[in-house]
From TrEMBL:
<feature type="domain" description="Lysosome-associated membrane glycoprotein 2-like luminal">
    <location>
        <begin position="14"/>
        <end position="184"/>
    </location>
</feature>
<dbReference type="GO" id="GO:0032584">
    <property type="term" value="C:growth cone membrane"/>
</dbReference>
<dbReference type="GO" id="GO:0031902">
    <property type="term" value="C:late endosome membrane"/>
</dbReference>
<feature type="transmembrane region" description="Helical">
    <location>
        <begin position="208"/>
        <end position="227"/>
    </location>
</feature>
<keyword id="KW-1133">Transmembrane helix</keyword>
<dbReference type="GO" id="GO:0031901">
    <property type="term" value="C:early endosome membrane"/>
</dbReference>
<dbReference type="InterPro" id="IPR018134">
    <property type="entry name" value="LAMP_CS"/>
</dbReference>
<dbReference type="InterPro" id="IPR002000">
    <property type="entry name" value="Lysosome-assoc_membr_glycop"/>
</dbReference>
<keyword id="KW-0812">Transmembrane</keyword>
<dbReference type="GO" id="GO:0005765">
    <property type="term" value="C:lysosomal membrane"/>
</dbReference>
<dbReference type="InterPro" id="IPR048528">
    <property type="entry name" value="Lamp2-like_luminal"/>
</dbReference>
<keyword id="KW-0968">Cytoplasmic vesicle</keyword>
<keyword id="KW-0325">Glycoprotein</keyword>
<comment type="function">
    <text>Plays a role in short-term synaptic plasticity in a subset of GABAergic neurons in the brain.</text>
</comment>
<protein>
    <recommendedName>
        <fullName>Lysosome-associated membrane glycoprotein 5</fullName>
    </recommendedName>
</protein>
<keyword id="KW-0732">Signal</keyword>
<dbReference type="GO" id="GO:0055037">
    <property type="term" value="C:recycling endosome"/>
</dbReference>
Amino acid sequence: EQEVENLSGLSPNPEKDIFVVRENRTTCLMAEFAAKFIVPYDVWASNYVDLITEQADIPLSRGAEMKGKCGTNESELELFWLDQAYTLKLSFLKEGHNTSRGPEASWRLSRIQFTYDTSERTYFKDAVSPGKHTASSHRLSALVTPAGRSYECQAQQTITLVSSDHQKSVQLLLSEVRLQPFDIPADFVFSEEHKCPVDQREQLEETLPLILGLILGLVIVVTLGIYHIHHKLTASQVQIPRDRSQYKHMG
């Protein structure tokens, strides 16, 4: 028995969507992300002779319908919105490989397919030869994550898809991603996250000044401590006068 749920309404971010696939009353795929497609399309110039290229910015709708498929090594999430004028299919693959540390497994986003209809009037205005087109990835290996962990990336990532509409390049912009298509430990619970390199770098850039500040502060404290101890030791030493005439003032 399979259930699919669009939980996007639970997100405080109106641009972020949440999707869950459950099989036998257990979560087998979870996905949270904000997505937008930038799609070039042709319109007539004012002279009705030349073609010019316009750009449609298509967000993933919060009310998207969905279906999903979970497997041991292959999983899939498919989303439809605006009366199926737009369809997004994400395919995931888990595979093992040998490393210097021995055999290891990881999962990745292996294929993206985006179908769009240029006769749809919300985002496309006066497209030449309107109709359905499909934009697909080619030999994709994205969001690579160790098996048993979830993928997390707050930073925006751009994935280029090639369209059946005269090989135009469609851009998929993904951000605020938390995703796990395999090995979910408990219902609605992500495994430990694997952060993307951009997030790791930004985290390091944020914490590095703090670390350097702490080190500098520690150096100053130690230096002042050494100076204070040295000053006390120096002050406690008895100064013996070198001039014999000063002996009469002692005692």
